[in-house]
Protein backbone atom coordinates (compact mmCIF):
# COMPACT_ATOMS: atom_id res chain seq x y z
CA UNK A 1 0.00 0.00 0.00
CA UNK A 2 1.37 3.40 -0.99
CA UNK A 3 2.07 6.00 1.70
CA UNK A 4 3.56 9.47 2.22
CA UNK A 5 6.46 9.78 4.67
CA UNK A 6 8.16 12.94 5.90
CA UNK A 7 11.64 12.85 7.34
CA UNK A 8 11.61 13.56 11.08
CA UNK A 9 15.37 14.08 11.40
CA UNK A 10 16.21 17.81 11.31
CA UNK A 11 19.76 17.45 9.99
CA UNK A 12 20.07 16.68 6.27
CA UNK A 13 22.62 14.03 5.25
CA UNK A 14 23.53 14.02 1.56
CA UNK A 15 20.62 16.31 0.56
CA UNK A 16 19.11 16.02 -2.92
CA UNK A 17 18.82 19.79 -3.33
CA UNK A 18 20.82 22.96 -3.95
CA UNK A 19 20.50 26.60 -2.89
CA UNK A 20 17.76 28.94 -4.08
CA UNK A 21 19.86 31.55 -5.96
CA UNK A 22 20.83 28.88 -8.52
CA UNK A 23 17.20 28.71 -9.68
CA UNK A 24 16.86 32.47 -10.09
CA UNK A 25 20.18 32.64 -11.97
CA UNK A 26 19.02 29.87 -14.30
CA UNK A 27 15.75 31.67 -15.02
CA UNK A 28 17.54 34.98 -15.65
CA UNK A 29 19.89 33.30 -18.13
CA UNK A 30 16.78 32.49 -20.16
CA UNK A 31 16.24 36.23 -20.76
CA UNK A 32 18.46 37.56 -23.54
CA UNK A 33 20.93 40.11 -22.21
CA UNK A 34 19.85 39.82 -18.56
CA UNK A 35 22.52 39.98 -15.84
CA UNK A 36 22.15 38.56 -12.33
CA UNK A 37 23.49 40.26 -9.21
CA UNK A 38 23.73 38.10 -6.10
CA UNK A 39 23.42 40.37 -3.05
CA UNK A 40 25.61 38.49 -0.62
CA UNK A 41 29.16 37.32 -0.05
CA UNK A 42 31.40 36.28 -2.93
CA UNK A 43 30.81 32.61 -2.15
CA UNK A 44 27.08 33.06 -2.68
CA UNK A 45 27.85 33.77 -6.35
CA UNK A 46 30.79 31.39 -6.77
CA UNK A 47 28.92 28.29 -5.58
CA UNK A 48 26.03 28.62 -8.10
CA UNK A 49 28.47 29.37 -10.93
CA UNK A 50 30.54 26.33 -10.00
CA UNK A 51 27.54 23.98 -9.85
CA UNK A 52 26.02 25.24 -13.10
CA UNK A 53 29.31 25.25 -15.02
CA UNK A 54 30.00 21.62 -14.07
CA UNK A 55 26.57 20.55 -15.32
CA UNK A 56 26.09 22.76 -18.40
CA UNK A 57 29.77 23.10 -19.40
CA UNK A 58 29.16 26.77 -20.15
CA UNK A 59 30.56 29.98 -18.62
CA UNK A 60 28.10 31.35 -16.07
CA UNK A 61 28.40 35.11 -15.63
CA UNK A 62 27.05 36.38 -12.33
CA UNK A 63 27.80 39.65 -10.50
CA UNK A 64 28.03 39.93 -6.73
CA UNK A 65 27.88 42.71 -4.15
CA UNK A 66 30.69 41.01 -2.17
CA UNK A 67 29.33 41.65 1.31
CA UNK A 68 31.98 41.54 4.06
CA UNK A 69 32.05 41.62 7.85
CA UNK A 70 31.65 45.41 7.76
CA UNK A 71 28.62 45.41 5.45
CA UNK A 72 27.12 42.59 7.48
CA UNK A 73 27.05 44.96 10.45
CA UNK A 74 26.23 48.24 8.70
CA UNK A 75 24.18 46.95 5.75
CA UNK A 76 24.92 46.39 2.08
CA UNK A 77 23.05 49.33 0.55
CA UNK A 78 26.12 51.09 -0.86
CA UNK A 79 27.51 47.83 -2.27
CA UNK A 80 24.27 47.10 -4.09
CA UNK A 81 23.97 50.63 -5.51
CA UNK A 82 27.53 50.41 -6.82
CA UNK A 83 27.00 46.90 -8.22
CA UNK A 84 23.90 47.91 -10.19
CA UNK A 85 25.72 50.95 -11.58
CA UNK A 86 28.77 48.90 -12.59
CA UNK A 87 26.70 46.16 -14.27
CA UNK A 88 24.65 48.70 -16.20
CA UNK A 89 27.69 50.71 -17.32
CA UNK A 90 29.98 47.83 -18.25
CA UNK A 91 27.63 45.06 -19.43
CA UNK A 92 24.78 47.02 -21.09
CA UNK A 93 22.17 44.49 -19.95
CA UNK A 94 18.57 44.27 -21.15
CA UNK A 95 17.46 43.58 -17.57
CA UNK A 96 19.10 43.38 -14.14
CA UNK A 97 17.97 40.73 -11.66
CA UNK A 98 18.99 41.22 -8.02
CA UNK A 99 18.61 38.14 -5.84
CA UNK A 100 18.88 38.00 -2.09
CA UNK A 101 20.86 35.46 -0.07
CA UNK A 102 20.79 34.11 3.46
CA UNK A 103 23.13 36.91 4.53
CA UNK A 104 21.30 39.87 2.98
CA UNK A 105 17.91 38.56 4.15
CA UNK A 106 19.17 37.97 7.70
CA UNK A 107 20.67 41.45 8.11
CA UNK A 108 17.43 42.90 6.74
CA UNK A 109 18.55 44.75 3.61
CA UNK A 110 15.50 46.22 1.83
CA UNK A 111 16.46 45.26 -1.72
CA UNK A 112 13.31 46.61 -3.45
CA UNK A 113 13.78 49.88 -1.57
CA UNK A 114 17.45 50.12 -2.56
CA UNK A 115 16.47 49.51 -6.21
CA UNK A 116 13.95 52.37 -5.98
CA UNK A 117 16.68 54.60 -4.56
CA UNK A 118 18.95 53.67 -7.47
CA UNK A 119 16.25 54.46 -10.03
CA UNK A 120 15.66 57.87 -8.43
CA UNK A 121 19.39 58.61 -8.41
CA UNK A 122 19.84 57.35 -12.00
CA UNK A 123 16.78 58.36 -14.06
CA UNK A 124 18.72 57.69 -17.28
CA UNK A 125 18.76 53.93 -16.53
CA UNK A 126 15.70 52.58 -18.33
CA UNK A 127 16.20 48.80 -18.19
CA UNK A 128 13.95 46.88 -15.77
CA UNK A 129 15.56 46.05 -12.43
CA UNK A 130 13.75 43.37 -10.47
CA UNK A 131 14.43 41.72 -7.12
CA UNK A 132 13.87 38.07 -6.25
CA UNK A 133 13.81 36.58 -2.76
CA UNK A 134 16.17 33.59 -2.71
CA UNK A 135 17.44 32.88 0.82
CA UNK A 136 18.66 29.29 0.91
CA UNK A 137 17.00 28.57 4.23
CA UNK A 138 13.62 28.70 2.45
CA UNK A 139 12.88 25.94 -0.05
CA UNK A 140 15.42 24.61 -2.56
CA UNK A 141 16.88 25.55 -5.94
CA UNK A 142 13.46 25.17 -7.59
CA UNK A 143 12.07 27.77 -5.15
CA UNK A 144 14.47 30.32 -6.62
CA UNK A 145 13.30 29.66 -10.17
CA UNK A 146 9.64 29.66 -9.15
CA UNK A 147 10.01 33.01 -7.32
CA UNK A 148 11.82 34.48 -10.33
CA UNK A 149 9.05 33.42 -12.74
CA UNK A 150 6.35 34.82 -10.45
CA UNK A 151 8.20 38.14 -10.20
CA UNK A 152 8.58 38.30 -13.99
CA UNK A 153 4.89 37.81 -14.76
CA UNK A 154 3.92 40.23 -11.99
CA UNK A 155 6.21 43.04 -13.14
CA UNK A 156 6.71 42.93 -16.92
CA UNK A 157 3.69 41.88 -19.06
CA UNK A 158 1.57 44.69 -20.54
CA UNK A 159 -1.73 44.37 -22.37
CA UNK A 160 -1.72 45.18 -26.09
CA UNK A 161 -2.71 43.53 -29.35
CA UNK A 162 -3.10 39.75 -29.57
CA UNK A 163 0.09 38.07 -30.79
CA UNK A 164 -1.26 34.61 -31.62
CA UNK A 165 1.44 32.88 -29.54
CA UNK A 166 1.18 30.36 -26.73
CA UNK A 167 3.01 31.01 -23.45
CA UNK A 168 5.00 28.00 -22.26
CA UNK A 169 6.55 27.91 -18.77
CA UNK A 170 8.83 24.85 -18.93
CA UNK A 171 10.03 24.99 -15.32
CA UNK A 172 13.30 23.28 -14.39
CA UNK A 173 14.23 21.21 -17.44
CA UNK A 174 17.32 20.77 -19.62
CA UNK A 175 18.19 22.75 -22.76
CA UNK A 176 17.50 19.52 -24.67
CA UNK A 177 14.00 19.39 -23.17
CA UNK A 178 13.21 22.95 -24.28
CA UNK A 179 14.37 22.12 -27.80
CA UNK A 180 12.16 19.02 -27.85
CA UNK A 181 9.14 21.07 -26.69
CA UNK A 182 9.87 23.56 -29.48
CA UNK A 183 10.07 20.71 -32.00
CA UNK A 184 6.70 19.29 -30.91
CA UNK A 185 5.02 22.69 -31.14
CA UNK A 186 6.63 23.34 -34.52
CA UNK A 187 5.10 20.11 -35.82
CA UNK A 188 1.70 21.46 -34.74
CA UNK A 189 2.43 24.87 -36.30
CA UNK A 190 2.12 26.56 -32.92
CA UNK A 191 4.24 29.65 -32.16
CA UNK A 192 5.48 29.43 -28.54
CA UNK A 193 6.67 32.16 -26.19
CA UNK A 194 8.88 30.67 -23.48
CA UNK A 195 9.05 32.07 -19.97
CA UNK A 196 12.01 31.73 -20.06
CA UNK A 197 14.16 30.08 -22.77
CA UNK A 198 17.61 29.12 -21.45
CA UNK A 199 18.27 26.41 -24.07
CA UNK A 200 20.87 28.33 -26.11
CA UNK A 201 22.43 30.39 -23.27
CA UNK A 202 23.10 27.18 -21.31
CA UNK A 203 24.04 25.05 -24.31
CA UNK A 204 25.63 27.48 -26.72
CA UNK A 205 28.23 27.37 -29.46
CA UNK A 206 31.75 28.63 -30.07
CA UNK A 207 31.89 31.78 -32.21
CA UNK A 208 34.97 33.47 -33.66
CA UNK A 209 33.63 36.78 -32.40
CA UNK A 210 32.11 36.25 -28.99
CA UNK A 211 28.75 38.05 -28.65
CA UNK A 212 28.41 40.46 -25.71
CA UNK A 213 25.63 38.26 -24.31
CA UNK A 214 24.94 34.57 -24.96
CA UNK A 215 22.83 33.95 -28.06
CA UNK A 216 19.20 32.99 -27.63
CA UNK A 217 16.86 33.51 -24.74
CA UNK A 218 13.50 35.24 -24.49
CA UNK A 219 13.76 38.99 -25.06
CA UNK A 220 12.41 41.50 -22.55
CA UNK A 221 10.04 42.70 -25.28
CA UNK A 222 8.63 39.19 -25.58
CA UNK A 223 8.14 38.97 -21.82
CA UNK A 224 6.20 42.23 -21.96
CA UNK A 225 4.17 40.84 -24.89
CA UNK A 226 3.33 37.61 -23.01
CA UNK A 227 0.17 39.36 -21.76
CA UNK A 228 -1.22 39.15 -25.31
CA UNK A 229 -0.81 35.43 -25.94
CA UNK A 230 -3.56 32.89 -26.58
CA UNK A 231 -3.00 31.16 -23.26
CA UNK A 232 -0.36 29.88 -20.85
CA UNK A 233 0.74 26.32 -20.03
CA UNK A 234 3.04 25.46 -17.12
CA UNK A 235 4.76 22.09 -17.48
CA UNK A 236 5.57 21.81 -13.77
CA UNK A 237 3.27 22.62 -10.86
CA UNK A 238 6.04 23.39 -8.36
CA UNK A 239 8.11 25.48 -10.79
CA UNK A 240 6.01 27.95 -12.76
CA UNK A 241 2.55 26.86 -11.66
CA UNK A 242 2.06 29.99 -9.55
CA UNK A 243 3.34 32.15 -12.43
CA UNK A 244 0.85 30.56 -14.85
CA UNK A 245 -2.02 31.23 -12.46
CA UNK A 246 -0.89 34.83 -11.95
CA UNK A 247 -0.57 35.50 -15.69
CA UNK A 248 -3.94 33.89 -16.40
CA UNK A 249 -5.75 35.93 -13.74
CA UNK A 250 -4.07 39.24 -14.57
CA UNK A 251 -4.90 39.13 -18.27
CA UNK A 252 -7.92 36.79 -18.33
CA UNK A 253 -6.24 34.18 -20.50
CA UNK A 254 -6.68 30.39 -20.31
CA UNK A 255 -4.08 28.82 -18.03
CA UNK A 256 -3.25 25.17 -17.44
CA UNK A 257 -0.80 23.55 -15.03
CA UNK A 258 0.17 20.13 -16.37
CA UNK A 259 2.41 17.31 -15.20
CA UNK A 260 5.85 17.27 -16.80
CA UNK A 261 5.36 15.62 -20.23
CA UNK A 262 7.44 12.50 -19.58
CA UNK A 263 6.08 9.25 -21.01
CA UNK A 264 2.97 8.48 -23.02
CA UNK A 265 0.14 9.67 -20.77
CA UNK A 266 1.69 12.99 -19.75
CA UNK A 267 2.82 13.86 -23.30
CA UNK A 268 -0.64 13.02 -24.63
CA UNK A 269 -2.13 15.41 -22.10
CA UNK A 270 0.27 18.20 -23.03
CA UNK A 271 -0.40 17.95 -26.77
CA UNK A 272 -4.15 17.69 -26.22
CA UNK A 273 -4.09 20.85 -24.11
CA UNK A 274 -2.07 22.69 -26.77
CA UNK A 275 -4.60 21.54 -29.38
CA UNK A 276 -7.56 22.78 -27.31
CA UNK A 277 -5.96 26.18 -26.64
CA UNK A 278 -4.81 26.86 -30.19
CA UNK A 279 -7.24 24.92 -32.38
CA UNK A 280 -4.29 23.12 -33.99
CA UNK A 281 -4.43 19.35 -34.45
CA UNK A 282 -1.75 16.88 -33.37
CA UNK A 283 0.29 16.15 -36.50
CA UNK A 284 0.82 12.75 -38.10
CA UNK A 285 4.54 13.06 -37.37
CA UNK A 286 3.81 13.31 -33.65
CA UNK A 287 1.41 10.34 -33.91
CA UNK A 288 4.26 8.33 -35.46
CA UNK A 289 6.60 9.35 -32.63
CA UNK A 290 3.97 8.21 -30.12
CA UNK A 291 3.72 4.85 -31.87
CA UNK A 292 7.50 4.41 -31.71
CA UNK A 293 7.51 5.19 -27.98
CA UNK A 294 4.80 2.58 -27.43
CA UNK A 295 6.87 0.10 -29.42
CA UNK A 296 9.96 0.88 -27.30
CA UNK A 297 7.95 0.34 -24.11
CA UNK A 298 6.58 -2.99 -25.39
CA UNK A 299 10.10 -4.10 -26.37
CA UNK A 300 11.41 -3.11 -22.93
CA UNK A 301 8.82 -5.14 -21.01
CA UNK A 302 10.76 -8.40 -21.38
CA UNK A 303 13.66 -6.83 -19.46
CA UNK A 304 11.85 -4.48 -17.09
CA UNK A 305 8.67 -6.20 -15.89
CA UNK A 306 8.68 -6.70 -12.14
CA UNK A 307 11.96 -4.89 -11.45
CA UNK A 308 11.89 -2.42 -8.55
CA UNK A 309 13.03 1.17 -9.03
CA UNK A 310 13.75 4.17 -6.78
CA UNK A 311 13.44 7.71 -8.17
CA UNK A 312 14.72 10.92 -6.57
CA UNK A 313 15.09 14.57 -7.58
CA UNK A 314 12.88 17.60 -8.16
CA UNK A 315 9.21 16.87 -7.45
CA UNK A 316 7.70 17.38 -10.92
CA UNK A 317 10.53 15.48 -12.55
CA UNK A 318 10.08 12.59 -10.10
CA UNK A 319 6.32 12.43 -10.77
CA UNK A 320 6.84 12.15 -14.52
CA UNK A 321 9.56 9.52 -14.15
CA UNK A 322 7.45 7.42 -11.77
CA UNK A 323 4.59 7.29 -14.27
CA UNK A 324 6.93 6.38 -17.15
CA UNK A 325 8.50 3.60 -15.05
CA UNK A 326 5.04 2.17 -14.39
CA UNK A 327 4.22 2.39 -18.11
CA UNK A 328 7.38 0.34 -18.78
CA UNK A 329 6.35 -2.43 -16.39
CA UNK A 330 8.77 -1.40 -13.64
CA UNK A 331 7.58 -1.28 -10.03
CA UNK A 332 8.35 2.13 -8.50
CA UNK A 333 9.19 1.45 -4.85
CA UNK A 334 10.49 4.81 -3.59
CA UNK A 335 9.97 8.38 -4.81
CA UNK A 336 11.98 11.03 -2.96
CA UNK A 337 12.31 14.80 -3.10
CA UNK A 338 14.01 17.24 -0.76
CA UNK A 339 11.28 19.78 -1.54
CA UNK A 340 8.62 20.25 1.12
CA UNK A 341 5.21 19.92 -0.54
CA UNK A 342 2.35 17.93 0.94
CA UNK A 343 0.34 18.80 -2.18
CA UNK A 344 2.92 17.03 -4.37
CA UNK A 345 2.86 13.96 -2.15
CA UNK A 346 -0.93 13.70 -2.32
CA UNK A 347 -0.87 14.15 -6.09
CA UNK A 348 1.72 11.40 -6.53
CA UNK A 349 -0.23 9.18 -4.15
CA UNK A 350 -3.18 9.49 -6.56
CA UNK A 351 -0.94 8.36 -9.45
CA UNK A 352 0.27 5.41 -7.35
CA UNK A 353 -3.29 4.32 -6.57
CA UNK A 354 -4.35 4.79 -10.20
CA UNK A 355 -1.51 2.55 -11.44
CA UNK A 356 -1.65 0.06 -8.56
CA UNK A 357 1.82 0.79 -7.14
CA UNK A 358 3.27 -0.04 -3.73
CA UNK A 359 5.11 3.27 -3.46
CA UNK A 360 6.73 5.04 -0.51
CA UNK A 361 6.68 8.80 -1.17
CA UNK A 362 9.44 10.55 0.78
CA UNK A 363 8.84 14.31 1.14
CA UNK A 364 11.50 16.76 2.35
CA UNK A 365 13.91 13.88 2.70
CA UNK A 366 17.54 13.19 1.79
CA UNK A 367 19.63 10.50 0.14
CA UNK A 368 20.79 9.04 3.46
CA UNK A 369 17.16 8.21 4.20
CA UNK A 370 16.72 6.71 0.73
CA UNK A 371 19.84 4.59 1.17
CA UNK A 372 18.56 3.21 4.46
CA UNK A 373 15.26 2.31 2.76
CA UNK A 374 17.07 0.55 -0.09
CA UNK A 375 19.16 -1.45 2.39
CA UNK A 376 15.95 -2.70 4.04
CA UNK A 377 14.08 -3.41 0.81
CA UNK A 378 16.47 -3.41 -2.21
CA UNK A 379 15.65 -2.08 -5.66
CA UNK A 380 17.07 -3.05 -9.05
CA UNK A 381 17.44 0.44 -10.57
CA UNK A 382 18.06 3.94 -9.19
CA UNK A 383 17.03 7.04 -11.19
CA UNK A 384 18.25 10.54 -10.32
CA UNK A 385 21.16 12.95 -10.55
CA UNK A 386 24.87 12.37 -9.88
CA UNK A 387 24.38 12.59 -6.12
CA UNK A 388 22.96 9.06 -6.20
CA UNK A 389 26.22 7.48 -7.42
CA UNK A 390 27.35 6.60 -3.89
CA UNK A 391 24.18 4.60 -3.24
CA UNK A 392 24.47 2.90 -6.64
CA UNK A 393 28.11 1.95 -6.06
CA UNK A 394 27.58 0.61 -2.54
CA UNK A 395 24.47 -1.41 -3.45
CA UNK A 396 25.69 -2.59 -6.86
CA UNK A 397 22.72 -1.21 -8.78
CA UNK A 398 22.69 0.95 -11.94
CA UNK A 399 22.12 4.69 -11.69
CA UNK A 400 20.15 6.20 -14.58
CA UNK A 401 21.29 9.80 -14.59
CA UNK A 402 18.71 12.50 -15.14
CA UNK A 403 17.89 15.88 -13.60
CA UNK A 404 20.31 18.39 -12.06
CA UNK A 405 23.20 18.28 -11.38
CA UNK A 406 24.95 15.65 -13.51
CA UNK A 407 28.64 16.23 -12.91
CA UNK A 408 30.22 12.83 -13.60
CA UNK A 409 28.99 12.36 -17.16
CA UNK A 410 29.25 14.43 -20.33
CA UNK A 411 26.51 15.96 -22.50
CA UNK A 412 23.43 15.23 -20.41
CA UNK A 413 22.33 18.86 -20.59
CA UNK A 414 21.58 18.23 -24.29
CA UNK A 415 19.50 15.11 -23.68
CA UNK A 416 15.72 15.37 -23.69
CA UNK A 417 13.45 13.27 -21.49
CA UNK A 418 10.20 15.06 -22.40
CA UNK A 419 7.92 14.24 -25.30
CA UNK A 420 7.68 11.01 -27.24
CA UNK A 421 11.25 11.19 -28.57
CA UNK A 422 12.59 12.04 -25.12
CA UNK A 423 10.64 9.08 -23.77
CA UNK A 424 12.25 6.77 -26.34
CA UNK A 425 15.69 8.01 -25.28
CA UNK A 426 14.86 7.52 -21.61
CA UNK A 427 13.45 4.01 -22.08
CA UNK A 428 16.66 3.02 -23.87
CA UNK A 429 18.78 4.62 -21.13
CA UNK A 430 16.95 2.76 -18.36
CA UNK A 431 17.06 -0.64 -20.10
CA UNK A 432 20.70 -0.35 -21.14
CA UNK A 433 21.81 0.81 -17.69
CA UNK A 434 20.28 -2.35 -16.28
CA UNK A 435 21.78 -4.58 -18.98
CA UNK A 436 25.21 -3.06 -18.40
CA UNK A 437 25.07 -3.88 -14.70
CA UNK A 438 27.07 -7.14 -14.77
CA UNK A 439 25.39 -10.33 -13.60
CA UNK A 440 22.07 -8.63 -12.92
CA UNK A 441 21.66 -7.44 -16.47
CA UNK A 442 23.08 -8.24 -19.87
CA UNK A 443 24.88 -11.43 -18.86
CA UNK A 444 21.53 -13.19 -18.40
CA UNK A 445 20.02 -12.17 -21.74
CA UNK A 446 22.88 -12.41 -24.25
CA UNK A 447 22.98 -15.76 -26.04
CA UNK A 448 26.09 -16.83 -27.97
CA UNK A 449 26.32 -20.55 -28.67
CA UNK A 450 30.02 -20.49 -29.66
CA UNK A 451 30.98 -18.40 -26.63
CA UNK A 452 28.97 -20.63 -24.31
CA UNK A 453 30.63 -23.78 -25.69
CA UNK A 454 34.10 -22.28 -25.33
CA UNK A 455 33.36 -21.29 -21.74
CA UNK A 456 32.11 -24.82 -21.03
CA UNK A 457 35.27 -26.35 -22.51
CA UNK A 458 37.41 -23.95 -20.48
CA UNK A 459 35.54 -24.82 -17.29
CA UNK A 460 35.90 -28.56 -17.98
CA UNK A 461 39.66 -28.34 -18.53
CA UNK A 462 40.26 -26.80 -15.11
Please characterize this protein's 3D structure.
- With 462 residues, the protein is an alpha/beta fold.
- The protein folds into two domains: 3-12 and 285-444, Rossmann fold (3-Layer(aba) Sandwich), CATH 3.40.50.1980; 17-260, Rossmann fold (3-Layer(aba) Sandwich), CATH 3.40.50.
- The chain has 18 helices and 14 strands.
- The strands form three sheets. The protein has a six-stranded parallel β-sheet, with helices on both faces.
- α2 (43-56) links the parallel β2 (34-39) and β3 (62-64).
- α11 packs across α13 and α11 runs antiparallel to α17.
- The chain is globular.
- The relative contact order is 0.12.
Summarize the structure.
With 462 residues, this protein is an alpha/beta fold. It has helices at 20-29, 43-56, 69-74, 77-91, 102-107, 111-121, 141-155, 175-187, 220-225, 241-251, 263-278, 284-304, 315-327, 342-354, 367-376, 389-395, 419-435, 449-461; strands at 3-6, 34-39, 62-64, 95-100, 129-132, 166-169, 192-194, 231-234, 255-257, 308-312, 331-337, 360-363, 381-384, 399-401. The chain is 47% helix and 13% strand.
Amino acid sequence: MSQILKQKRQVAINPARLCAPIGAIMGAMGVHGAISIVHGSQGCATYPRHQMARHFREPIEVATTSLTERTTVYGGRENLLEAIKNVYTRCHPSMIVVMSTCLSETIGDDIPGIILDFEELNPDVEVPIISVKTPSYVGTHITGLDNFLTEIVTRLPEKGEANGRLNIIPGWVSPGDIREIKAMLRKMEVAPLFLTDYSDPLDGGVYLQKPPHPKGGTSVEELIDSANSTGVIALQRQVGGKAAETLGKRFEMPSEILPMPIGVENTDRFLQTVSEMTGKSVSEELEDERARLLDAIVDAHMFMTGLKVAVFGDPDNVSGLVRLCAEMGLEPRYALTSFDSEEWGIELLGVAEEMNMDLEILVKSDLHELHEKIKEDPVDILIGNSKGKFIAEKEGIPLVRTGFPIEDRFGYQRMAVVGYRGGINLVGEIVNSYLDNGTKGGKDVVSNTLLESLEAEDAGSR
